[in-house]
Amino acid sequence: MDATTTIDAAMPPPGLDIVRLDVRPLLARGEEPFRAIMDAVDGLGAGQALALRTPFDPVPLHRVMAGKGFRRHTVARAPDDLETVYWPEAADAPAAPAPAHADVPEPEARVELDVRGLAPPEPMERTLAALEALPVGEALVQVNDRVPAFLLPLLDEQGWAYRISADDRGTVTTIWRDRPS
Q: Are 86 and 114 members of one domain?
């Protein structure tokens, strides 16, 4: 890998003010960076983009950011040093289409599942079992220590809609049906 290798070809529009966040120190200390990233995203103003430095390509985060209406450009500066710039689709013309479940409303009735502190694959197994038993018209709220990266592709394959957020408990993934099973 050369000094800088482009991983994806999308380029941010010119003139954006770049806000930088390096989560490599957090990860090195074993801390979950999702809340810090979402705080930085929430703090972005008009005309701003987030440049995120990570030791790996944060593929699950790309999905979360796409769901929030962001595009991305990733450059590998070294094998363990990547920079991904996220910018709002509104800064581009024309905007890319929203994810398939973006317009599907979340049900108000909720079942909560707390999987914090559990070792993989137990959080995913418990979540999938809870989804099998989830009553029609309800949403499952999974509270986790991290973004459930390996669960997200399964949710897509099985026709589940989801939104990921963070609160004082950790990473919160709300899951519901976006089409009949």
A: no
What's the Rg (C-alpha) of the chain?
A: 17
CATH number at residue 27: 3.30.110
- Give the Cα separation of 85 and 108 in Å (integer): 34
**CA nearest to 122, candidates 130, 133, 132:** 130
Q: Rounded distance, CA 99 to CA 101, Å?
A: 6
* Residue pLDDT, tens place only, 101-114: 555 678 888 999 99
Q: What is the pTM of this model?
A: 0.55
Task: Report if residue 105 sits inside a domain.
Answer: no
Q: How far apart are the first and last CA of the chain?
A: 44
Which two structure tokens, joined as six digits, stand for 131? 């989804």
**Residues 65 and 126 reside in one and the same domain:** no
Residues 71, 32 share a domain:
yes
pLDDT in tens, 16-31: 889 999 999 999 999 9
Q: Which residue has the tokens 């919160």?
A: 172
User: How many domains, the chain?
Assistant: 2
